[in-house]
Amino acid sequence: MSLNTTAVRIRVTLKDVKPEVMRCLVVPITLRLDRLHLTLQAAFGWTNSHLFEFLAGDGRWGIPDPDGDFDPQPIDARKTRLSNIVQETGAKTIHYLYDFGDSWDHVIKLEKWFDNTTTEGLPLLLEAAGRCPPEDVGGASGYAEYLDAISDPTHPEHEQMRLWGPEQFDPNVVDRKALEAAVNALSEIWKPRRRTTRSK
């Protein structure tokens, strides 16, 4: 089995959030973790405004802070591939933590492997359910409070939250075309460049 021709279907669910926010994607198993981070940002509709980490087994992968006092530092996500996590930990479930303040925990399940396949055109968004919460809403509990406030005109924070968040926010409505376009744009950027031979 060549890793370069192997893809994996992943189902990614935002933990502790109702209604469910889920994305199903196909990604190359050799995708670097910093690129998996960007893929998940695009697929969910986040704005890539905060730090992130991947967690599996006893391992932590993220962007090390050269000035950071945190010890130990995470393993560099720019130098690690999804296949490395699978080989090193045997994990079938990986956690992707985005925004250490709001602590959005995305549960990534590795569902199905595709061997001897082309990885051109990947990553690919297959399914999307539930709208991504607004950034900086206060994590899962803050999001639940936000939904309560905007859905109840008698709520004391109704008007304030309605004005603070996106216009006419509906947690069940997903702009699938926009998410697909964002994910497809990444596959175009990361497309392997074909070498051209110059004739002398």
UniProtKB/TrEMBL annotation:
InterPro entries: MM3350-like_sf, Plasmid_pRiA4b_Orf3-like. Pfam families: PRiA4_ORF3 (PF07929). Residues 7-177 form the Plasmid pRiA4b Orf3-like domain. This is PRiA4b ORF-3-like protein.
